[in-house]
Amino acid sequence: MEDKEITSKIVVEEWSGSSSMKLSRTAILTASITSFSVHRSDSRFNEVRRKILEAFVPEGFPSSVTPDYVPFQIWDSLQGLSTYIRTMLSTQALLSAIGVGEKSATVIGATFQWFLRDFTGMLGGILFTFYQGSNLDSNAKMWRLVADLMNDIGMLMDLLSPLFPSAFLVIVCLGSLSRSFSKFFENLVIYKRGI
Q1: What is the pTM of this model?
Q2: C-alpha angle 64/65/67, rounded to 5°?
Q3: Which domain covers residue 49, as residue numbers?
């Protein structure tokens, strides 16, 4: 009897995609008794790019979204970035106005002013909820616009507060009160969605 060499080969293919129409082969693994090889169809750059896109766009993109999705996301991202920058600038203005970095400022004085600012905002949020809470469902888009406007006014007051040292605490408290409406509305939307 002749000894026959058994040659068996296993091939495993990796596919990626969100539907059968969008599948693409990303790798082929070939194994036999004497060898093992991996062949990637995508370059590392394309693989990383694809993973980043999967993290930031809906599944099935672009066919799963309407044509206005990309322009909306661009403007929404720019708005988020500008809000972040404004928040950073207003916090810097507040910290310098309460004396952070100055030798004459006391920690207890800065803490008390920050406490009054936050307390005013919380109290304003509670009072706003008490008086307007049941009216928010009927006209959500209008209230969202009001919340954005109030947030912008609050940040503007924070930015301007160092220019008026004699009225600093009043301006900062009014700014916090103004921003509390937008925080309340954001929390309400999260609660309603069940997130």
Answers
A1: 0.53
A2: 135
A3: 9-56
